[in-house]
Amino acid sequence: MADFLTSTHRSKWIFVPQDLKEKYKAANHRAKQMLEKYGATRVDVDLDGSLAYPELQSDAKDNAEKHSRSKPLKIDEEQLLRAFYEFKIQDVCDAFKFPRKIQASTILIQQVSMNRLTCIYTACKAEENHVSAEELGKGIDQDHHVILNNEMISLGFDLIVYSPYRSIDGFINDMEDLHETAKMVADKTMRTEAPLLFSPGQLALAALRRSNEEHQVVDFERYLDSILSRQHPAHPVSELTVFLNAIDQLVNKLVTPTAADMKHIDRKLKYCRDPGSHEKYKKRKHRSKD
């Protein structure tokens, strides 16, 4: 059986908070550079899986005009966009009645910004839950060729990722009454930065503790002490509690943006990906006034 402690998930996809912030800054900076260089951030995927970038800006004036129209997203706007689509991913997975591990894998895969439907499709393959691209596209009225084209970007991914749900099932023998509530808390947790900062076991314990606060099933601190005494006797409960409190704080700060909240950000993103859409929008707006 695969082991999280020796996994690529642990070695490559668990960060300290400052490193994660730096990665967000670096990704945002790359997008700004691409916008300045090409006048757009849209990257198409050819049938052979290669990436097709926009043409280089040949004229400084043309570059300045396009740049004045297309303003790059700020980091906090990118975070809202990610939060919005992670919520949508869970909606789609619920509609298809996919198991929670598909939701979790999809959200972790989406951290590298693939098309969200491709993320779901790739997660289904990784978790051996077969669904065709045609079926997925038809179910939500999207072109399945987009899913297949973007899939090629995923070929460099690490196949196995871990979510808190299996860990919850492992702990749940002691706390059966907390099962469903804990998994609902884990659903929220997966839409925060916590999966990139903490292990699945820590995420599971944080979800169970939060569920226990509602149902009062066990003395949770004593339960943590019994776990650590059996598995990690060198680590005190207070050390684990610090991690669980940090996860709780991330869940408490979770905001689910509405479609109205996203309207301005989504328009900015469209202009960055396709500057020509700005002119189309202005023409539509002008016609509506006539």
Automatic annotation (TrEMBL):
Superkingdom of the organism of origin: Eukaryota
Keyword Cell cycle: yes
Domain Cyclin C-terminal: residue ranges: 173-251
One GO term of the biological process aspect: regulation of transcription by RNA polymerase II
Organism: Cynara cardunculus var. scolymus (Globe artichoke)
Disulfide bond is among the record's keywords: no
Keywords: Cell cycle, Cell division, Cyclin
Pfam families: Cyclin_C_2
A GO molecular-function descriptor: cyclin-dependent protein serine/threonine kinase regulator activity
Record-linked InterPro entries: Cyclin-like_sf, Cyclin/Ssn8, Cyclin_C_2
Full protein name: Cyclin C/H/T/L
Higher taxonomy: Eukaryota, Viridiplantae, Streptophyta, Embryophyta, Tracheophyta
